[in-house]
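Standup notes
- HV: blocked on the assembly model, inputs below
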Amino acid sequence: MKIRTLFAAGALALGTLGSFPAIAQTDELIAGQVTKVDESAGKITIKHGPLKKFDMDDGMTMVFRAGDPAMTKAVKAGDKIRFVPERINGQFTVTKIEKAK
Ligand SMILES: [Cu+2]
């Protein structure tokens, strides 16, 4: 009981100190442009600028897995977008996507 309480307190302290930058980075929307959508494969090809969280210092065009199949219907080639890229099980995945205004 005592150990568990200490552990919980430690996790809480870590969370308080460490979570804000992590969340800010995770949720950061990256500007990009859709160059191709493969609905059947659930893939979206996106041209993006530098992506520091993946050590991509230069912009490039790359294929992302759509985190949600609905994403492949929401965007089309040529759309300017803002998106959140994550690496999930080693695969670059779009977890959020919206059209740029
Ligand atoms: Cu890239």
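- HV (later): unblocked. The helical segments are 2-26, 71-74. The two ends are 52 Å apart (CA to CA).
- Next: hand off to the docking folks.
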